[in-house]
Every structure is written in structure tokens, then in C-alpha cells.
Design a protein that fits this description.
Layout lengths: L8 E5 L11 E5 L1 H11 L26 H11 L6 E2 L17 E2 L7
Antiparallel strand pairs: 1-2, 3-4
């Protein structure tokens, strides 16, 4: 993926203080959150190309892979309930006219 491309980036997130023993997570970071995250943590320049011309953060094509045993445990604990939100896409300059129908969504990042 090219830096700034509207595709989430696969990143390894490491806690600054690992006193809780959580370890690192390799997860998708949404494209609109990636550059600000990088600017706040690793580089004031944000998502910039490496020597290949591409971002060092590979693109995510929205494929989910779960280890079934821990996933089944979480489903048992939550009853299968997941955080959801509505993400409307408005026409330019409007907050009442939609570009396309909106839908109920959930974030892949909620499943590290």
C-alpha cells in the first residue's frame, strides 16, 4: 500500500508500559487513524514510504482469521454481543443527504 492510501494498515502495537503483561497485538489500524497514530508514536512525519516507495505498513483487505478456542470463549462470555455503530457517508457539504445508504458496522480492531 502507498502511504496515505485509504486502506487500513497492519501494525504491531506494543504497550509503552507492559506492567499488565498484555504483550503486543498485530491488528488493523484504520487508514484515517494510521497517520495520526504514527505521528504520535513513531515518527512526526507519519505514514511515509520506505526505500521501496511503499508504506512499511502493509494494507489490510478485511479478511478475519480467528483462533477458534479463544473466540468461542469470548462468545460465551459476551453472549455474542459486539459494539456496533452507524457510519453514514454524507454528500459534500451536507449532514442530511447521504451518498449511499448507511449500514450498521463493527470494527475489526475490536477483535485482536
Amino acid at each position: 500500500r502507498r502511504p496515505g492510501e485509504a486502506v487500513g494498515g497492519i501494525c504491531q502495537l506494543n504497550p509503552a508500559d507492559n506492567t499488565l503483561g498484555l504483550g503486543s497485538l498485530t491488528i488493523n489500524v484504520e487508514y484515517n487513524q494510521l497517520d495520526p497514530l504514527l505521528r504520535a508514536t513513531t515518527s512526526p512525519k507519519g505514514d511515509i514510504p520506505d526505500e521501496s516507495g511503499y508504506s512499511p505498513y502493509p494494507g489490510n483487505i478485511n479478511v478475519l482469521v480467528f483462533k477458534l478456542e479463544p473466540y468461542a470463549t469470548v462468545l460465551d462470555l459476551t453472549g455474542g454481543a459486539i459494539p456496533e455503530f452507524v457510519n453514514p457517508k454524507y454528500q459534500a457539504g451536507s449532514t442530511t443527504k447521504f451518498v449511499k445508504p448507511t449500514r450498521l458496522e463493527c470494527m475489526m480492531q475490536d477483535y485482536p
